[in-house]
Write a structure and sequence with these properties.
Elements (H helix, E strand, L loop, with lengths): L1 E7 L12 H11 L3 E9 L9 H9 L3 E9 L9 E2 L10 E8 L3 E8 L6 E2 L4 E3 L5 E9 L2 E9 L3 E2 L1 E2 L10 E2 L4 H12 L7 E6 L6 H6 L2 E2 L16 E6 L2 E3 L4 E3 L8 E8 L11
Parallel strand pairs: 1-2, 10-14
Antiparallel strand pairs: 1-19, 2-5, 3-4, 3-5, 6-9, 7-8, 8-12, 9-10, 11-13, 14-16, 15-16, 17-19, 18-19
Helix pairs in contact: 1-2
InterPro entries: Endo/exonu/phosph_ase_sf, Endo/exonuclease/phosphatase, GPI-anchor_lipid_remodeler
Pfam families: Exo_endo_phos
GO biological process, one term: GPI anchor biosynthetic process
Amino acid sequence: MIRLATFNVQHGLGADGVVDAGRLARAVAALDADVVALQEVDRWQARSGRSDLAAVAAEAVGAADHRFVPTVAGPVDVWGARRRARGDEPPDVPGYGIALLSRHPVRAWHRLRLPLAVPWLLARGQVARDEPRAALAAELDTPDGPLTVVCTHLSAGRVQQAGHSRPGHDQASHGPGHNVLQLRYLHVALRVAPRPLVLLGDLNLRGEIPAQVTGLRPLATAPTYPAARPRFQIDHVLADGDVVAAGEAQSVDTGVSDHRALVVDVTLTPPRPDLRPAP
């Protein structure tokens, strides 16, 4: 059995308005997951104590391997200093993005940039912007066989004052829009990925929409947002191939972030034999 978790950590921000890397480490460790997909992860940012939050979380879960993929490079608190990450930034450059942690060995890592929503101007100096988006895939060797896991964080409709946006600080809507296009783009790209496959992340799409768009099977159904009193599910675990849920999913209030963590145990099932008579 393999425990999977997806968690939008909101750069480690607690309900008390304080970012505490130690508290984030304890929260992630308490999930006791073999694979953890993280979104809204800071690295070397001032607002999160200049910590490498992916490394902090990886150590907390005892990960054999982990990878952080920045979507934004530079200080997120300085509008003119941040830019879309190219993927070749030196390791000491501040970043913000997604991460995957695995207790199982990783055969290969893959990164994919997703289409960016086009900014548009609104009335009274307001502008709707988007953050760069990406997906990160890992091909795992587990005791039960190979498994591909994918982490992503899709766009949400956002409206903010021009020049005052910070990643992870925007007021989001969670309806279908550019995120559906990104999900379709990702789904097509994943057709060549080895199966079984599990897609985890904050898709900013409610309920059954991600499964309807992709045809993937939901392995976890539980409200995850907002954390204090979750009313709907925008964090998802979707599968293709011989992998099934081994029980009900848990929506876990960790005391960190405005999202709950979504946790589910899965098993890899062998392919069914072909019982058709030979011609």
